[in-house]
Design brief:
homodimer; about 120 residues; Multidrug-efflux Transporter Regulator, Chain: A, Domain 2; elongated; DNA-binding
DNA sequence: ATATCACCTTAGAGTAACTCTAAGTCAAGT
DNA sequence: ACTTGACTTAGAGTTACTCTAAGGTGATAT
């Protein structure tokens, strides 16, 4: 079992954000100890990882919550969830391409800058 | 010369956001016509493109504004701007890797889902 | 001439997702 | 006993949009 600090560290998000996610009901299987502290199981860490991935794709909190609800609802929702993940795959692909474009632009600009800085000397 | 609608279209952002950017002073060289309407020159379109790139890297509005101010200040700021662009190149690289990771995770999950959906039939 | 359309303008309200602060609880270490 | 460090909550604050309301302008349609 993991504390907020540990789980946040593993997921690469802030403790604030992790508490916010649990409060929003995004992470199933988060228990509380006898002092009311959040306890993350291995399973909930997996859910958290998925949530972070979906948020990274730009999926809104409300949609993620709906997805996690489908997740808990059993195998009847497999097709629905599959479709949702497909959409997120497209988003991730688009983000990849955009990051490549930004990188290309920055490298081109950096090249121009190097020339100008050299020329100035 | 281009209208807000045209410039926003070219830059791939909303008209609202473009007005917001001009109001924040992020885009040099935006004129007004006799009816007070914003007019974007080719040059300002270039600045806009850069602003969108930097925002995409996650650079805050205030930092972008500072960068654009350096831009207008002349060749004395070349080195400073070069360093800033280098940082953004690193960010863009990190985003690229993160998008790849998300994509890998989603594709792995999609594979599992396909198996389970097939198995169910 | 007037109406409708497609644009544009502004100030300011509303929203999403954090991000942080304040005030407090609790257990362990010195 | 006291400090440290982790945790708790409610709620305020921030960023970057995102949208709404109320209105202006100019071109085309009736």
């Amino acid at each position: 079992m993991f504390t907020v600090k540990q789980a946040a560290e593993k997921a690469g998000i802030s403790e604030h954000t992790l508490r916010y996610y649990t409060d929003q009901g995004l992470i199933p299987g988060v228990a509380r100890d006898e002092n009311n502290k959040r306890l993350f199981s291995e399973e909930s860490l997996g859910y958290l990882h998925l949530v972070v991935c979906l948020r990274g794709c730009g999926m809104p909190i409300g949609d993620i919550k709906r997805f996690m609800t489908l997740n808990l609802a059993g195998d009847d929702t497999l097709e629905d969830r599959y479709q949702i993940l497909l959409e997120q795959e497209e988003r991730a692909t688009a983000q990849l391409r955009e990051a490549e474009e930004r990188l290309a632009m920055l490298r081109r600009k950096l090249g121009h800058y190097r020339e100008r800085i050299e020329g100035k000397k």
